Amino acid sequence: VKVKIPFGNKYLDAIFSVPEKKSTYGVILTHGAGGDMNFPHLVSLAACLASHGVLCLRFTCKGLNIAYRTKAFKTVVEYLKLSDDYKLSGVFLAGRSMGSRAAASVIRQLSQDDDDDFIQGLVCLSYPLHRPKLQSKLRDEDLLFIRCPVLFVSGSADEMCEKQLLEGVASKMKAPKKIHWIDKANHGLAVKGRTTDDVMEEINSQVFAWFRENIELEHK
Fold it and tell me: Where is the KANL3/Tex30 alpha/beta hydrolase-like domain (predicted)?
């Protein structure tokens, strides 16, 4: 289902992947610095989650300014929260690369605004922890503030997320967290000798298993 989400005096293009049965939980997905919501990994993940009963909302927000992207993401969260069509108990935020930074930033902001249980967790695909070859300056400040569960899916050869550095940041995080390393994958999660579909299947099964764990924990 295509929708246009009001954002200031503009609109954000978005697409709902709606499961057959009414969904209690949803996930909002967004893309990295390049591309849009039709990035293959996001389309594949949305289809996989919707087929397992999780409502997915993907949206496009062009613009390389992280504050702008964060504001857009926050608008989408509010939109879904107030939606009459899909009454959800909670939502997970997910993003690829820069999109995951924006998602982390939104969660930090919303947790400072109010004690809201609407956001259930964060999924970071290829979190850009640092610029290529610039490991001294880490983009970890939002991650250290977050309290909800976080899943990182990153390539072990990601030039923007040195393995030991992410593990170091994770060890300082207060949130329950899990890292799934995709062996030999780069920042685009491509692996020499493996098809895109094969890698996407690995990502999707990891993300769905993590979702299920966290939704079940909520209900216990």
Answer: 27-210
pLDDT tens for 114-134 read 656 889 999 999 999 999 988
The predicted-structure confidence for 134-151, as pLDDT tens digits, reads as follows 888 999 999 999 999 999
Annotated domain spans of the chain: 2-8+17-31+38-219
Neighbours of 20 (CB within 10 A): 8
Topology annotation, domain 2-8+17-31+38-219: Rossmann fold (3.40.50)
Separation of alpha carbons 125 and 5, rounded Å: 24
Q: Which amino acid is at 97?
A: S
| Rounded Cα gap, residues 207 and 219, in angstroms | 19
Give Cα 79 to chain centroid, integer Å: 17
State the CB neighbour count (10 A cutoff) for residue 183. 10
How many other CB atoms are found less than 10 A from the CB of residue 181? 17
Whether this model's pTM surpasses 0.85: yes
DSSP at 185:
-
Q: How far apart are CA 64 and CA 85, in angstroms?
A: 31
